Amino acid sequence: MTEHTSQDEGRPSKARRAHLRSTERKTHQTISNLVPIERYYTLASNILAEFDRAVSAQRLDDAFIFGRRFLTFSMEAIPKHDYYRNREKLKAANNADMHRVMDDMEKTVELMDLEELERREIRRR
Predict the structure, then answer these.
(1) Domain boundary assignment for the chain
(2) Quick one: which of 42, 66, 63 has its CA closest to 54?
(3) Which residue from 66, 81, 86, 112 has the least number of CB within 10 angstroms?
(4) Whole-structure pTM value
């Protein structure tokens, strides 16, 4: 999942988000076709629920981590399952969730930017 855009360069929370990315465990997400794909969608739903809880509680770092985890799992891991194309309803629901999470992630990053600007102002005083 690429996240570095030219508009990202000047964002106040860039270093904070880079630090959060660097602390993530680098695990290779293995998908087994012996495991029903529904289990993977359930796992994605569980990650999504954690993301939603973090967003609603304005735990921005947690929201950023869970949002990235959900998007990476949904975009990179689940499509590797042999039955990915055969479960249209699950795939469509997951795709809708991905679009919502992408929008919520942008809002989360905006809030992180505001927090960083506030911190800079406090340090400046």
Answers:
(1) 33-124
(2) 63
(3) 86
(4) 0.87
